[in-house]
Amino acid sequence: MRELGRIHHVAVVVRSIEDSLVFYRDLLRLELEAVADVPSDRVRIAFLGVGESKVELVEPTDDTTGVARFLESRGEGFHHVCLEVDNLAESLLRLEIDGVELIDTAPRRGAEGPVAFIHPRSAHGVLVELIEAQGGPSWKSLGYS
Description:
By secondary structure, the chain is α+β, with helices and mostly antiparallel strands. It has helices spanning about 15-25, 65-75, 90-95, 135-140, and strands spanning about 5-15, 30-40, 45-50, 55-60, 75-85, 110, 115-120, 125-130. Strands 2-3-4-1-5-8-7-6 form an eight-stranded mixed sheet.
């Protein structure tokens, strides 16, 4: 695994994206890049640009998901940090060999590219998402153009 690239995004779980946009878009004046439903994860997300990084707002659309349980038990707030890597499959293999507990052992489709999550038990209580840099080897195999 190469040294990590940029912080791709920081995710914040919210009860309502629309209500949260009043703060992030209107008051902080962050640029709203996209709002999308992600049916496979049963969430609605919004990305707002911050320099070379982003803030992701995550709103659960189903009360039975992990995100919904997180919101119910902890309330709105920080959820995860996403770091960019060149080759996600290679990074996951190296982390697994090094004894890191992975939630995803192979790249899967994410809203902005191939992703995988590292379990908080291996990251000092922080949920870490890895995303493959645009055009990396997993993009084609997962059906991205």
